[in-house]
Write a structure and sequence with these properties.
alpha+beta; Fructose-1,6-Bisphosphatase, Chain A, domain 1; D-Maltodextrin-Binding Protein, domain 2; 2 domains; seven-stranded mixed beta sheet; five-stranded mixed beta sheet; 8 helices; globular; metal-binding; inositol monophosphate 1-phosphatase activity; Inositol_monophosphatase_CS; Inositol_monophosphatase-like; Inositol monophosphatase
Length: about 270
């Protein structure tokens, strides 16, 4: 049985974290590079430490898996804990460090390898997205709902070409089966903006667990559909990155799947 979680308290906690540790450092913080080449700032570290301390104090039996932990510690937590928090304390760090106002905090409660609760907070626009398994999704308390998309050739979406396989990326560029694409550089917000109907689809290669755990739940509970590129489920029970196909209109997802099946090559489920 899922533990009783005060969802409003968690939402307020994310807002407090942003107000104390993220927004005051926007435009002022310096960045360092992690061993994998990605960027980290003091805001990432302090945000994770604050949220871990607060969540541990209120829910001491639920461990936290955070992006800024070692891979070994992340793997151990996933193996040993049936219920755990999954946190990205500051997604879009490159944007944040460069003064680009597109970044967010993501927190999910995983149980049995599934996202049961999810929150994403956008500090710049002060928007809180949330969802509970089987209970729908909201933005600032207003329910989100799926809506019909136009035909694929008329759709606008987010495509992260950098992490897709080269053959698939080149074919997308050459054929461009959609009308137009964007890339905002903050996965946790890209999921939620799709759920809010701000565009029609989302393609992203090799996405990490903490980038999708809350956002995919929010989209699914809004009536959308998200899978790996080959149609398999996203699998929140392990760490390997997944390549994502997501739409707010499930019929558009089928149109994308048909197009992908005609592609000469696309990433397998392990990407």
């Amino acid at each position: 049985m899922a533990p009783e979680i005060d969802q409003q308290w968690v939402g307020k906690l994310l807002r407090t974290c942003a107000e104390r540790f993220i927004l005051p450092r926007f435009h002022t913080v310096s960045a360092n590079r992690k061993p994998d080449g990605s960027i980290v700032t003091s805001a990432d570290i302090d945000s994770q430490n604050f949220l871990q301390d607060m969540l541990s104090a209120r829910y001491p039996d639920i461990p936290l898996l955070g992006e800024e932990m070692s891979l070994a510690e992340q793997a151990r937590l996933l193996q040993e804990a049936d219920t755990l928090w999954c946190l990205d304390p500051l997604d879009g760090t490159s944007n944040f460090a460069a003064g680009v106002p597109v970044f967010g905090i993501s927190l999910a409660l995983l149980q049995g390898g599934r996202s049961m609760l999810g929150w994403v907070y956008d500090p710049v626009r002060a928007e809180l997205f949330s969802a509970a398994q089987g209970a729908g999704a909201c933005m600032d308390g207003v329910p989100l709902a799926a809506r019909q998309a136009p035909k694929l050739q008329h759709c606008v979406g987010v495509v992260d070409y950098k992490r897709l396989s080269r053959p698939l990326a080149l074919r997308l560029i050459d054929e461009r089966p959609f009308h137009s694409q964007r890339n905002f550089g903050a996965s946790v917000l890209e999921w939620c903006w799709l759920a809010a109907g701000r565009y029609h689809f989302y393609l992203h290669g090799a996405q990490q667990l903490w980038d999708r755990a809350a956002g995919a739940l929010i989209l699914n509970e809004a009536g959308g559909r998200a899978t790996q590129l080959n149609g398999d489920g996203l699998r929140e029970s392990n760490l390997p990155p997944r390549s994502i196909l997501a739409t707010l209109d499930p019929q558009l997802h089928e149109s994308w799947r048909r197009w992908l099946e005609t592609a000469a090559e696309f990433p397998n489920a392990a990407l």
